[in-house]
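User: Can you predict the 3D structure for this chain?
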Amino acid sequence: MWRKLTAAGLAALILLTGTVYAEGPSLEDTMESEPEEELPAGFFEDASIPTDAEGLDVPAPSAILMEKETGTVLFEKNADERLRPASVTKVMTILLIAEAVDSGALSLDETVTCSAYAAGMGGSQVFLEEGEQMPLSEMLKCIVVSSANDAAVAVAEHMAGSEQAFAARMNERAQELGMVNTHFTNCTGLMDDPEHLTTARDIAIMSRELIRHDWIKQYTTIWMDTIRDGQFGLSNTNKMVRFYEGATGLKTGYTSSAGHCLSATAMRDGVEYIAVVLHCASSAERFESAKTLLSYAFGAYTLTEPKPTEVLPPIPVKLGRAAYVQPVAAQASKLVVKKADAASLEVAVELTDALQAPVEEGQEVGLMTVSLGGKVLAEVPVVASEAVPRLTWWDVARRMLRTLFFGSQGS
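Assistant: Here is the predicted structure, written as structure tokens:
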């Protein structure tokens, strides 16, 4: 039977012990206990971080730092080494749930029933019993906050019929996202399956996709909460959610073989970064590595949207119903650049001299180039803002008649 702990009791326990209490065994993803480490005061505060990636001291054996909006990689270290991800696996599990909710295939209010198989998962869990039912929203909270293996499998079965079928969906989605070095055999990361492997880069890719579903942060930023009408306490294993400024998630993981793993996300001033660290020797090492990477990003980089310094001139259209068409950039050109370089970006635009009708809306009419110190950073097509049909014989005849009877000023 699951143990009872109110939110107040959970908070009191944390204040007394200085550690985080997780319901059930104080382990994650394995029947071995994850060592609990007490971190010093101020551990998560921004330290003096180098502004050059070469000066970064990141102890994690495998790591990557990515900006969310553009997918720009700012730092990597053995980012394509295939490793066991432990419970960071659940980023994909949560992503499939989020996508199903947003597509209307699932509702957060619908009921999920726990099977005997799901109830027997072990590891991090909320001690679901066979036949126990919860709304999907509560199951999702258990997965995100407490890394509950039993809840993850229950939802996987609810969505796909079996964990095996759900894992197949996970692999399909991984391929769609370009996660070329990933293979999932389950939805939890609970077992150290030698075929259950991914990389820091692939984890960053799926993490980026997940946080595009902004509502999921209602769950990933929870520090403490309860389920079962307040009788069962949940606490987040990701201490950055509580102590790192701007933290938005995302997922910890640990097994004796995988080591301490983390996909950490944080946002400041509207810019969000993803730091993934794998196979760390300790929990402190994973948090230190992720904190260093995120603080480096916030301190050294900015997200900018370069634009032409002047309004683009209209382009003449020959034999068109309109004499001119207005050019516009085909898309926003957001770039991640060093803060020190942002003011030095150069934007140049080349436009075609004239166009022959018909002109289609979105037709390419030029190119905008963004460069820094002579190095091209981005090229963005410039396109026609609207369609311009070609003059018909009747249009030509009507213009000639107007000129004949009313002169060039006629209408």
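The mean pLDDT is 88. The chain has two domains: 7-300, 315-406.
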